[in-house]
Amino acid sequence: MESQIHYLAVLGYIDSRLDELHEEFGDLPEVLKTKEKKAHENKMIVKDTENILENIKKFVATTKNTLIELKDKEEKLAKQQFKVRNNKEFDAITKEIAHIRSEHTRLTDQMRTEGIKEENLLGILDQQKKDFEEAENDAEKVRLELQSLATEQNDEVKILYDKRKLVISKIEDKYYNSYERIRNFHPDTVVQVLRNSCSGCFNALPAQKIVEIRNNLDEVYDCESCGRILYPEEFYIDDSTVEQFK
Question: Residue 156 is inside which H or E element, if any?
């Protein structure tokens, strides 16, 4: 029957391998997040510009109709001037025609200004779309790289997590809780005694403690200097050790 320290050593080996696999992603997740954010911002810029252009088109279409209506109204009023009965009516119509012409001029000038704005924005929109496409392509490259790594790792990670559950089921709760607590400070939670020293912090171990670690395998000993869990130098943990758990 395997010992508690053996199970802890295997668990430490599995977690170290999982850490290595996760580290292969490096800063790619953060890089992807940054690039996706940039692509989204560029997309919103394009959308805002397109909304402005759409509003300009609506304004131009509405204004063209309004100009036609103003012109028609001016012509009708001009005809009425010849049918007035007194100067007061003539002056009132003249004043209204002047207002219509002023409004016509204002809307014509505004439509011309909006036309220039539209022309400029169309040029800007082309560049904004290129910027968005470039940002999206950059994000997609990183996304594909991450997916490729994840695909390669997927089977191994799944197997390791399955093995991890099996190993944990054989570890007493008090030792597993201690393991998880130490792991918050030292990723290499369980380390081998090498040349009478802790291979985690390299501090020398008392001779008596080395003897106890070697002989009392169902007891768990930690390094007094760094707190890591120690296992005997005679132990050899590798992939084949992990594979034995089924």
Answer: helix 87-168
Contact call for residues 212 and 219 (beta carbons, < 8 A): yes
Sole residue written with tokens 């994840």 = 150
User: Torsion-angle region of residue 196: left (phi > 0), alpha (psi -120 to 50) or beta?
Assistant: left
Q: How far apart are CA 108 and CA 164, in angstroms?
A: 76
For the record, the structure tokens of 122 come out as 């169309």
For residue 86, CA distances in Å to 79, 80, 81, 91, 97 come to: 15, 12, 10, 9, 17
Q: Which helix (H) or strand (E) holds 230?
A: strand 229-231
0.70 exceeded by the pTM? no
Which burial class, exposed, middle or buried, applies to 27 when counting CB atoms under 10 A from its CB (0-12, 13-18, 19+)? exposed
- 147-184 pLDDT, tens per residue? 787 776 777 888 888 899 989 999 998 999 899 999 99
Number of helices (H), then strands (E), in the chain? 6, 4
Low-confidence residues of the chain: pLDDT under 70: 1, 152
At residue 87, the pLDDT reads 85
